[in-house]
Design a protein that fits this description.
CATH class: Mainly Beta
Helix content: under 10%
Number of strands: 25
CATH architecture: 6 Propeller
Largest sheet: 8 strands, mixed
Number of domains: 1
Structural class: mainly beta
Radius of gyration: 18 Å
Length: 315
């Protein structure tokens, strides 16, 4: 099985940006966006960040709350963002926030977490801030009519998501992190309903937890970032076959065991793997040994193309 080392790409100067980086996404030519979900243990704000591969500059745009995801749109400088308990549009050029709808009504102690954009709209989940109760929602924002539809209400920490297919009948691959399973649903976009879950990857033999997930370019596998709460020298992102469940490749992050999200990006003529890592909940003495925690990494791959990463078309 191929094993790839990764290189440190960015060590954010501001410590708050290293607390919980997630959600990397291609952003035009030679750039990549990512979210800093929470700027410290007691913080209730986060930001959108845009990294330029050529200049190595990282620009930060503070949000009015904690973002779970942010996807580029067809409007220059504007992102669709899941922030706290709202879905909305954020204009990085003006700082304007335009709500599109609210979620988690009647539920205490949850905020929006990971999501995925696709032709039918958006699918995104929420998380229990205490990571204990099965009370967080899973939602569909349907492009055809702009409706927000609750698909489930029993997740703990809704993370990596992939949409397979197009049209009104698609498959959703989904991770609720504490279950350590990747499951597949059939999603009927028109009716706003999900089938029963089918487990496609059981990862309970691992000590770490699956977090962010993307598809391989051929759609036959997935890349999963693993968040390791234990005192380990390296973190991992692993490629799995969806047909066999076998590990096909692994990328390691030195002195950063809490890997949160992967993304494949084009850098020059090569397809590279970009990884975010986190400091979240790491004791001070552990952080002294894992000084790269909260940094952004990049590694070589054997891929020669990219998976689909659509921008969000503003209605």
């Amino acid at each position: 099985m191929p094993e790839f080392a990764t290189e440190l790409l960015l060590r954010p100067v501001a410590s708050e940006l290293r607390f919980l980086p997630e959600g990397p996404y291609p952003y035009g030519d030679g750039k990549l966006s990512w979210v800093s979900i929470q700027h410290g243990l007691e913080s209730t704000v986060g930001a959108i960040n845009v990294f330029d591969f050529a200049s190595k500059e990282n620009r930060t745009f503070e949000l009015p709350g904690r973002p779970g995801f942010a996807f580029p749109t067809n409007r220059e400088g504007t992102f669709v963002v899941g922030c706290e308990r709202q879905l909305g549009l954020f204009d990085t050029t003006t700082g304007d926030w335009s709500p599109m709808g609210e979620v988690e009504a009647g539920v205490e102690g949850t905020i929006v977490n990971d999501g995925v954009a696709f032709s039918g709209g958006l699918v995104f989940g929420a998380k229990d801030l205490n990571f204990v109760e099965k009370k967080a929602g899973l939602y569909l924002w349907r492009r055809s009519d702009g409706q927000l539809i609750k698909l489930r209400s029993d997740q703990v920490c809704s993370n990596g998501k992939i949409i397979e297919g197009d049209g009104d009948q698609v498959s959703l691959l989904d991770i609720d992190t504490p279950t350590k399973n990747v499951v597949r649903y059939q999603l009927d976009v028109a009716s706003g309903t999900l089938s029963e879950a089918e487990v496609v990857l059981d990862l309970n033999s691992r000590e770490d937890f699956p977090d962010g997930m993307i598809a391989t370019p051929d759609g036959h596998g997935v890349l999963i970032a693993f968040y390791n709460p234990h005192d380990r020298d390296t973190g991992q992102c692993v490629q799995f076959s969806l047909q066999t469940g076998q590990e096909e490749a692994v990328w390691k992050t030195e002195k950063a065991p809490r890997v949160t999200c992967p993304q494949l990006v084009q850098v020059g003529r090569s397809v590279k793997l970009f990884l975010t890592t986190a400091v979240e909940d790491m004791p001070a003495e552990m952080l002294e040994r894992h000084l790269n925690s909260g940094c952004l990494f990049i590694g070589e791959t054997e891929f020669d193309s990219l998976p689909d990463t659509p921008i969000f078309e503003i209605p």
